Amino acid sequence: MFEIRIESSFSSAHRLRGYKGKCEALHGHNWKVEVFVQNPELDKIGMVADFHEVKKLLKSVLKKLDHAFLNDVAYFKKVNPTSENIAKYIFNELQAKSKKLDLAKVTVWESDTSYASYISEK
User: What is the largest CA-CA distance in the chain?
Assistant: First the structure.
């Protein structure tokens, strides 16, 4: 199995509904996002996927989140904007933009020591 990893980042604010503690208040993060693409075979030129294309797709997804109040993003009006749900949102948005991309996992870091991942159910 071959795997590539793309990393990017965005900044946003959110508050966690139903949470008792500091994170129920409005606060922000400088998020780091990792996208993992896997394939058992390389394409005809020896690649899992084109880094440039994956970066472009990821940039288009993160553009909706960067410098946003996540609770105001349509998806997060009904889904709590936890790190776990942000990872799932990014995964699903990428998958919707490119059916041929064999996404394995999206990891979202909210700090240097805390992250959540959404892993493909395949």
Answer: 53
Query: Is residue 94 packed enough to be buried (19+ CB in 10 Å), middle (13-18) or exposed (0-12)?
Result: buried
Mean pLDDT of 47-58: 97
Point out the catalytic residue in the list 7, 23, 24, 27.
Answer: 23
The reported pTM is: 0.96
The confidence score (pLDDT) of residue 100 equals 86
Which member of 14, 29, 34, 110 is catalytic? Answer: 110
Whether 67 is a known active-site residue: answer yes
Would you call 98 helix, strand, or coil by DSSP? coil
What is the fold of 2-119?
Tetrahydropterin Synthase; Chain A (3.30.479)
